Amino acid sequence: MAQTSPALTAGNLGIDGLPDDMGKLPHSGVIALAGSSGTAFENWRRHLVQDLCRDFPTMLVAPDALLLDRLFATQPDNHTAPRPDAWVLPSTAQSQLQEAGFAALHKDLKRAGLRPQQALCLLDASPLFTGASLERIHRLAGQLHQWASQRKAPVILCFEAPGDEVHGMLTSFAHAFPYYALLEQDGNGLALRLERWNSAQGAVFAIRLGLQAPDWADTAQRLHANGVVMQGSSAQLIYAPDELDVYATQAAVADQRQPPAPWHVVATRELIPEAVQHALGATVLLDAGSSIEFEALARMVHQLRRTHPQTLKIVVRETVGKLRLNSEQALLRLGANDVIYRELGFSRLLQRLRDLQSQRFSRQVPESYEQALDAFLPIPERGYQQPAYFCTLTLNMLRKTQPMGLSHSLIQLRLLSHASHIQAIEAYRPSRDGDLITADHDSIYVFLFACGESDIDTALPRLFLQPLAQLFSSQTSDSSHEGMLLMLGRLQSAAEAGLPDYTAVAMPGTTARRPINAQMHNSVQPSATLPRIAPATDAAASASVMGHSPIPRRPSPPHSA
Asked: Which residue stretches belong to region Disordered (predicted)?
């Protein structure tokens, strides 16, 4: 397919505006058209019949009279258009023809009055093939194709509500069904998928043409191509009429005196939905804003993704602050194509946007915004926790976020001989929910939510008022799920044997609610007891052991832990 704008022409496939003459019906060979039962398929079939009757004398074959009555009732009152011949071939009779073969079908068609110059349209041919053996399908379809290839008018087989069996048959038997088009509805909206077809440029395969749905209440309105063209099993975007358009919030381009001329700069994020309500393949560039704006940002990303085709690109750019790792992952889960770090210059940003132009969003987006976001959120607790409760809270967060692939870190800080537990706990100043601390006989344990191994040395020193080397002799950390479970198992065993509770000396306002009748975030209740975990094995030795004075390593690019 060409990268330039397709020439739009009306055709006689019952759908207007299809590019490169793809709306033209072949005049010979079997043409298979399939789609799920519903208003869209009814519209397509109705206007297909109109176009067919306009261009050819036509015979319609239906499984029942009700379908013919419904079809004729919605045909325009046009006295110049010839009325098609109609024949009812019940589903049971179609099934019986599987064994009788094409000769019996051909004989019945001639008896019904089919003439050599007439087009033939089976309004629902599913019963003719459903349930048949591969051998019978191969024989019947092959004979039907050979007969249709000798005719000078189209032979159309419609398959309403095709199941996997019918779709597999139409896909596999390409020699018998050389033309196959499927009307489908998915995250990209309504579209006509041409599995095999002809165009002005030659044969095309696996082409997906976006459609604009009409007002279903008006039976005269037809399906119309919206200009979006995708190709391949992964539905790569080939063309969209607005694929070069970029809609950016003012804050997202605040570092530029003059944004690129073709860009549409929108004053605030709240005005974006209205600005892009008709966008198909454009790019939306949103500013991340501050942490207090995250929920509004996440909700907007989800709204845009749920109300637009998957060809719309949504990009979030960090501006005034750094997104936490879990916040970034949540945005990608809710529908964003990419998150651009604030360290990335504008020229690199432009390149990233260019790289996205031919992509589509292929991940499944949950219908519920609240449920999707909750999986990435920590518990609303921070700071010191009594040891057993620390294990319970931490395990709950690990369990909830493991399916999302979030990385966390559990750190054991062994105290210097002259440093006390109280001194270390009083020096701890958490700033984020989900970051917890507790103590055993000779160490402090810190859990950092959504903080990977590479970010520990940047995040950890910020949590203590004193340098780590003045409080601790060594640092053992693990960010693997299995390793953290092993560490929690050892701590839980120590807690069951008896450990001090330093709740009274923890900084006011940072402690969690007491374990009794504790309410977990989003009604997730803590486990009564932590499951027993096997004692540490050699696998636990993979945890990194730092020296007396950990040297912070700034990751590249730096990430907000």
From this structure: 539-561
